Amino acid sequence: MSWWRSVEPAPKDPILGVTEAFLADPSPEKINVGVGAYRDDKGKPVVLECVREAERRIAGNLNMEYLPMGGSVNMVEETLKLAYGENSELIKDKRIAAVQALSGTGACRLFADFQKRFCPDSQIYIPVPTWANHHNIWRDAHVPQKTFHYYHPQSKGLDFAGLVDDIKNAPNGSFFLLHACAHNPTGVDPSEEQWKEISKKIKEKGHFPFFDMAYQGFASGDPERDAKAIRIFLEDGHLLGIAQSYAKNMGLYGQRVGCLSVLCEDEKQAVAVKSQLQMLARPMYSNPPVHGALIVSTILGDPDLKKLWLKEVKGMADRIIGMRTALRENLEKLGSPLSWEHITNQIGMFCYSGMTPEQVDRLTNEFHIYMTRNGRISMAGVTTGNVGYLANAIHEVTK
Ligand code: PLP
């Protein structure tokens, strides 16, 4: 008996496929600027010192009991403060339904499932372009997708007029997926003034803003500053949702620790919404993993460890900002006639270089440089040791 005869191999994930190809390349010059994971200036993965210290404190004290269905109460509480503000009235008024989620991906998926269950006829508006997995997440939750303008290829910046038009033209009460900061893949974020305008327009139309915040702290180096867009929306009195992740800003990628929150009208509604989020989680994974949550609550619950974390996040962001400058300067020094200003204008982990798929293929085939074919460079993979080689290769293929 063969039940699976008709099963075809799934297409390769465009991002994870890049790493596979990188690993298979024996060249000593090879560079991986595909995957969005932080590397130090030697190109090595990093475990933050605050995480090491939290692990030392946890060691031996951790029982292996299940967390509640909604996850670690302490972790969720600290996580909400990062997004909504340390002294947020909304937290005090218990207006936020929040559960621990399986990192940012799990938070988005849980929200998508919640959206489908309670607004079954709704759609989600997604920016063009976006993190590829957003499409998969809402597809598998059976929520129809629409797109809105975001990136302007000519200016390599924001298509603000297109974005605002799309907000206006969407049917009232639509769901909009927004990247809170450090937009992936473009590195293009609206300015504060533009966020204010976006918030106003979304409010006028009664849309529901859902923020994916996978990079809080990675854009400016300061998690507080990176929450600015959300704070603007809160000031304007929106009800909204947020997916938070500790993958990047605490380097807890494989721990799968994050949070989904939904701001409600009052405490009663928040209790109901939280119970329904838990109801969605129960048959999928029952309750979330304990270890990463304990690392996060240990760090954020201790003023000294939190201070250390803030310093280390800033260190990561600053190294990336430094590499943006270095890459641009190297390209300019090589005499490239093209404008590379966008490398330093863009923000966060990625640079949306503007290179074509054919140019990227040449980088890979001739220079052993691995990245996604949309021209996205993970700046976290750029180091003082390889930036010259990378700039030279980019110059060669864009001549
Ligand atoms: N959202 C965006 C925009 C991302 O870039 C990522 C990771 O690359 C995620 C969410 C989810 O990451 P994780 O599930 O590891 O927290």
UniProtKB/TrEMBL annotation:
GO terms for cellular component: mitochondrion. Its EC number is 2.6.1.1. Keywords: Aminotransferase, Pyridoxal phosphate, Transferase. The keyword Transport does not apply. Residues 29-394 form the Aminotransferase class I/classII large domain. Pfam families: Aminotran_1_2. It catalyses: L-aspartate + 2-oxoglutarate = oxaloacetate + L-glutamate. The keyword Transferase applies. It comes from the Eukaryota. InterPro entries: Aminotransferase_I/II_large (IPR004839), Asp_trans (IPR000796), NHTrfase_class1_PyrdxlP-BS (IPR004838), PyrdxlP-dep_Trfase (IPR015424), PyrdxlP-dep_Trfase_major (IPR015421), PyrdxlP-dep_Trfase_small (IPR015422). One of its GO terms (biological process) is amino acid metabolic process. Gene3D superfamilies: Aspartate Aminotransferase, domain 1, Type I PLP-dependent aspartate aminotransferase-like (Major domain). GO terms for molecular function: L-aspartate:2-oxoglutarate aminotransferase activity; pyridoxal phosphate binding. Important for the metabolism of amino acids and Krebs-cycle related organic acids. In plants, it is involved in nitrogen metabolism and in aspects of carbon and energy metabolism. Belongs to the class-I pyridoxal-phosphate-dependent aminotransferase family. Homodimer. In eukaryotes there are cytoplasmic, mitochondrial and chloroplastic isozymes. This is Aspartate aminotransferase. It comes from Prunus yedoensis var. nudiflora. The lineage of its organism: Eukaryota, Viridiplantae, Streptophyta, Embryophyta, Tracheophyta.
